[in-house]
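Example: CobQ/CobB/MinD/ParA nucleotide binding domain protein.
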Amino acid sequence: MTHVVATINLKGGVGKTTTTAALAEMLSGEFGQRVLLIDLDPQTNLTIMMIGEARWGELDSAGRTLATLFEVALGDRVGPVDVDGLIQRQVSPLTSVASVDLIPSSLRLIGLQDRVTDIGAGHTEVMARALRPVLDEYDYVLIDCPPNLGAMTLNGLRLADAYIVPTIPDVMSTYGIGPVQERIRRFADEWGTDIVDLGVVVTKYRKASAVHRNTVDDLNRNKQISMVFPSLIPEANQIAAAAEFVDFGTLRRKYGNDGQFTALRDLAQDFIATTKVRLTWA
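Written out as structure tokens, the predicted fold is:
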């Protein structure tokens, strides 16, 4: 059974993309899961993190990015779309991670996102119609959404079974969690489906910070939040450096031995357990 999970937060800079990439690599490298990453964020950070800027440029020039789906739907490009040609196989720069694939993003999504509604009825279905046939190849599909609830994000949510909210444990980063939950519930009701709120992933956590500790306590007490994943991802230079397109060799070397690797591995383990329990209806 394939579980499709969107990662979303309306606040930028919360470690959403880094967490998405690390989760994918842990799911594959430590737990043998087949993972597809979909980079829906026009900033293309996840794409460049996984395949490097040079390779991304080649693919973008050749029309082998997510933008092509929307260009064909808008009539800007002749179809049909070769979905298999969009998927980049075994993209992790870590030689120890063998089963992470990627559908790259494109800067062209910036302009396209303002025109998606021109497609008319079904404009939120572009990704779902094109990609659902290939999802059975994977155990998990992780969609890195842009920090908004525009038409592109709605396409990602329409494909998703569930979502997580990565956040720094401070007031500014957590402020938008409630509005995100409410809007996603409303979208799901309109579509006649269910998009499960799997919970909050705490990132860039500083144990010495009273603000961080108190915010985590507040999140755990908040009955509107389904759960806070118990593994708190620490703020660490090693995790920030992991965004570079470099073959670190092993997951431990990439993410660090001072608790970072363990925290991310525990997150992946909890993620598997949570999806098995919460998404058994899918």
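The longest helix spans residues 260-278.
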